[in-house]
Amino acid sequence: MAIGASIKRFNSIIRQIIYIDATHLKARTMGVLLIALCKDGNEMIYPLAFEFANFECIESWTSFFKKLRKLIQYPDLMMLVSDQHNGIFNAMEVIFPNATHGICAYHLV
């Protein structure tokens, strides 16, 4: 799911830096929540898109990135920041080959 107003503003105003992560769900359905967000000019969290998946793997990240790529105007000019999960890194290289990839400072330490 992508929020239309968020995507429109992202494409026109906000810095092209997207933070990517996943969190494991502990409800009866289980699975993971994949999320893409950025920060606005006031350093506030700005949600772009999210997706529910069964597992955090290359296939689920590839599916998520394919949908995200359709929404972003200039995918080659953006930077993706993540925790270096193999699924994220491998899917990003396929779907966003010209985008820059950064490492989350928290996970780097």
TrEMBL record:
Residues 18-109 form the MULE transposase domain. It holds the Pfam family MULE. InterPro entries: MULE_transposase_dom. This is MULE transposase domain-containing protein. It comes from Dipteronia dyeriana. The lineage of its organism: Eukaryota, Viridiplantae, Streptophyta, Embryophyta, Tracheophyta.
